[in-house]
Task: structure prediction
Amino acid sequence: MNRAAANRSGLFRGPLAQLIRAARPSRTLLAAAAASSFVAVASTLAFPMLTKQVVDQIPAGGVQPVSIALLAVALTGSALATALTAYLLSRVGYGVVATLRGLLVRKVVALPVAAFDRNSTGDWVSRVLNDCQSISELVTREAINLLTSVLLLAGSVTVLILLDVRLTLMLLGSLGCAFLLVIPLGMLLEGLARSTQDRTARLGAILTHVFSEIRLVKAFTAETRENGRSDEEIEGIRRIGIRQAKVNVWIEPLMTLALMAAVIAILVYGAMRVSKGDITIGTLTAFVLYIINVATPVVQLTHFTAEFQKAKGASTRIASLLQDAVEDTSPQAEVLEHARGTLEFRDVSFSYPGGQGSKVLQDVTLQFRPGTTTALVGASGNGKTTILSLIERFYEPSDGAVLYDGRPITDFTLASWRSRIGYVAQGAPIMPGSVRDNITYGLTGSYSDEMILEAAAQAGALDFISRMPEGLDTQLIEQGNNLSGGQRQRIAIARMFLRNPDILILDEATSSLDSETEHQVKQALALLMKGRTNIVVAHNLTTVMQADWIYFLESGRISGMGNHEELNRTHPYYARLVARYFQRVPENIAVLEPASTAIG
Result:
């Protein structure tokens, strides 16, 4: 085996060892556990020798009390030291897993949005929970068995050799033959473990989607379809589990048969040697007891091998994730102070990763000036959402540049750039937590209840918040399902009043609302938009008409720009949409009707 292969396959090298080292387990606790383990092993090793002494004293005239006392001390010391070792290593192990999970969560949160386009939510959850759980089993329970087993096995073999070399060689030969059969089975378990983890991750992804969109599933009576998808993965996990069980069925019986054969052979051969006077009956008794000391760690080591293969597969996936590039955090980036600059797209083109080269935006040049409202108009799929994503720096342009005050926005730190942007989206996402938590979500610093209530009043949310059972402390469930759409929007707007951004993005902020609620939300938005750089995407043409400037997008390009009156005169497609909105189609406008006539 070459050095590279050894590095990959060694127990103390490779991804698993790197992850454990990255978790920085407590050296003090590890040292204490090692010391305790030495005491436990020493006591266990002393027990057969003390038993030998007691047995040999019987023919010589009786057992001495001190021998019985030493035997009791050895048994008690072994039990107490073993329990202490288990507790100390468990503390270390759970600390390692907690640190790994923390590292993994921080890593996933820091990944660019493009990474979430490649993997589902369930995949990320599976990495943090299931894969870390595999490592948890290894470093908490199996690490204890490994340490005590190695020490006990090494000590027992050493003492056995001192007792009788020939009997020891007979025992080791039986175990060696069994291990030659077990090693290939352990290698097979590694592949099965990886398959199980992959299948489990896919099942987690399906369930995450189904549970988070349960209303959609039920509304379209798609329970049978989703049950089928889940059943396919569940059945796959079951089949792999059965294959693993078949492999495991052979491992422990092989080791047990080898030990039983060794015990029978040693008893027969040892009895012959006792009859010849080569060894005493006490020596044979001690030897049989030491076989138990050998058998226990051997069985534990075989089980450790199976768990190690599972953890090895999980660690490879985790290590790969930890090596993924996070969002740009250049040390040369500057903190963007409170400013009112012009946001500009200059010849920007963009293709989504994996989009097979098709450009969503092509040579887009536009400006968003402070103190004005700019609307993005066009049929769905023509690049409006992509422009918003580029502003937020969820993606980077393929070509061209996005500038702020004449400087590339990449000159500023991500945190300071995004802190100057306020985003009110369609549906206004709500996080599980209190009303207070949602209004202050993502904001730094402390906010008094008076400040929060003032923001709620500005957003038109104070009335319904005051009617809630616990006011600001009322708990909101996942996706805000105990709120109406208008209430969610007004909580999102209240958050913007506290955030006080320079750039305000309104992405279909008034869609799917009844006329009265829409009127209330528009009043709150009108107050929020004062003095800011406002970017609006809306289906509602009345919102677009009030914009200072409008950009019309078609096929990822700007096909028209100007205010409402200018576009209505010069842009046939926009004029057609305006006419349809007011239910009057000018006879002199003869344009090819596109597949979608949606404004937003």
